[in-house]
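Action item from last week, closing it out:
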Amino acid sequence: MAAPCAPAGRRAAPDRPPPGPARAKAARAVGAEVSRDAAVPLSSIWSDVDPVAAFASGYAEARAKFLATARARELAVESHEHPAARGPSGEALAVDVAVLGPPQASAALLLTSAAHGVEGFCGSGCQIALLADDAFAERARRAGVAVVFVHALNPWGFAHVARTTEDNVDLNRNFRDFGRAAPNDDYLAIHDFVLPAAWPPPPEQEARMAAHLARHGPGALQAALTTGQGDRPDGLFYAGRGPTWSHRVLRNVLQRHGAARQRLGWIDFHTGLGPCGHGEKIYAGPDDAATLGRTRAWWGADVTSIYDGSSTSARVTGMLFQAALEECPRATYAGIALEYGTRPMPEVLQALRARAWLHAHPEASDVQRDEILRLTREAFHVDAPAWKGMVVGQARAAALQALCGLAGGER
């Protein structure tokens, strides 16, 4: 097994002035700046939040931390409890929503985690760190932006260390027109050897995958797998044949907290693609030049896009942003998926295959089950202090950029 990209051990000293007069002077200097876009004074950018402390060992602990952090801010929490599904120990599963900043603001920033279940280890940590951050809360207040934290959009996947929902649906492929077929012949051609009947896969199945890679290349395999498919409910990246419970909850949250806004920004936290620890800002919106331009104006020219081939992600369908366009049609919109790298793609793919096999084989032994869950978690979360610091720092930077963009109005 490859070593984590960031070694554990003594944490590096933060790159900021030490406590005392020097730090106070620096803070005053930063606070005196004025954002050209938002036209509001900026408070200190320094944060005393320990990023490592914001992370959790599982869904139940993550939810407890999120709720406790919201209570400490004296925020009301709106909980959408799953009517049927439960966690591994029988615990309740819920999507929890807290709003920081002026609730009736004309602009809102949506921060969502765990659309892909197991990726919530990272997304939840980023949300909790931001929610605990006094300087960030002050920036939101000054900008006049309501920050809507949607914690654990797919709580079943988070709790059961799966990327999919309880229905084996990829939630970020589920926002599509169910009245139209979603054929993916390229996926059907590889399904049998991508998801073999036995695990570990028999040598002949691995030979077929190797031959496919040699003939078509990794890009073609990624596109065939990840675009989304509606024919094999047991398969990978299954789009579903109707809205999932999480799908319906997200639409409800958008109706309640987004529909009346004039401006809406969205950061959706993900993991599993790209260099370890790097957060790729992937445009999350329609194939529209104006919206892409606005998104790059807010978050920078390094925002990538599935439409022009600049992203590590293949072009996919049925993504979450479609709900924002439909439920909040009056809002000027910009959004990104902040995608953090974890491990090399072959390891991530192997974990996806193994977890899909486990979902289809509940009779698997405890030993095999535990090993597959371990592989899955490690593929989408790096349990090292340096990696956690990297992802929280980039999440904070992206959230601050969004506040400036939202406060600046239409561009």
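Closing note: The chain has one domain: 30-176+244-346+365-408.
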